[in-house]
Amino acid sequence: xxxxxxxxxxxxxxxxxxxxxxxxxxxxxxxxxxxxxxxxxxxxxxxxxxxxxxxxxxxxxxxxxxxxxxxxxxxxxxxxxxxxxxxxxxxxxxxxxxxxxxxxxxxxxxxxxxxxxxxxxxxxxxxxxxxxxxxxxxxxxxxxxxxxxxxxxxxxxxxxxxxxxxxxxxxxxxxxxxxxxxxxxxxxxxxxxxxxxxxxxxxxxxxxxxxxxxxxxxxxxxxxxxxxxxxxxxxxxxxxxxxxxxxxxxxxxxxxxxxxxxxxxxxxxxxxxxxxxxxxxxxxxxxxxxxxxxxxxxxxxxxxxxxxxxxxxxxxxxxxxxxxxxxxxxxxxxxxxxxxxxxxxxxxxxxxxxxx
Length: 356
Prior knowledge:
This is Aromatic ring-hydroxylating dioxygenase subunit alpha. The protein is α+β, with helices and mostly antiparallel strands. It has 2 domains: 11-138 and 336-345, Rieske Iron-sulfur Protein (3-layer Sandwich), CATH 2.102.10; 144-328, Naphthalene 1,2-dioxygenase Alpha Subunit, Chain A, domain 1. The chain contains 6 helices and 17 strands. The protein has helices at residues 11-17, 144-147, 164-171, 175-180, 272-302, 319-345; strands spanning 22-28, 37-42, 45-51, 57-61, 75-76, 80-82, 89-91, 96-98, 118-121, 124-129, 151-160, 196-201, 204-209, 219-224, 228-234, 246-256, 259-269. It starts with 10 loop residues before the first helix and ends in an 11-residue tail after the last helix.
């Protein structure tokens, strides 16, 4: 069995580039076109995505197991890819299926390329990144607002030049809506003062205002159901059409320590002809307004120094942010310890963390 590339997963690397042992939404499904190979960078590493002839999405580390050539330049061969450098063929499980230059080569039949397990849901590709190559992925329960037949949702995806934690912390900070988004049609009301509490839930915790309900961005729930995601609700005026409050399911994928991808599924509880009305109104009127709100977030976060969290003076409104920082730092330390032996030994003979 051959050794292959294993980077050093330090505590700081994981904290800055993304924790393991969870599912992430990695890109919109539309990124992966039939017959083409798509290169992406996620969690500080390079990957490729492609669709097999069946339509199933596969994900591989962008590194040929022979000489380390980039697989993003490979030839799409239906259920596998063929490296352009020496023709080595690797399938969607990371197994070398053929070495054309030397048939019967000892690396044929070996699983030598990291190949995260992949699922598609709600217009996005999800992948599992684990610390134990031999362990099965955790069960993934998709956000219930997106599985409810009574909801209608639109996926919005963007890439921001900011560390992933800042983007997630922005969602755990309801108070910024009152100030940064004050001119928004949906967040112009409510008091500029508030008190907050943390309330436990069976899948995470709520961070919510205690003295104002149903007026602005007043609560958010951080959930872990195999993937980390947030759910929040913003009251809508009657002029915004049917469906009551406007909900958002949000996820963040680290690209590297300076960039992230943000997923926002915007949804409302509507069925029948009201569903069609809402979708028409969203596309023609509401969507540009929501992009404007996202741009306000992007500009603010990208304007912050990379080490902005090193010199802060936090107060009661930041309890949600402080909690996830402690949680994620603890997980990063634990995962770095678990990954250290694999990095030191090169994980001889089997794929390393994240492999299917």
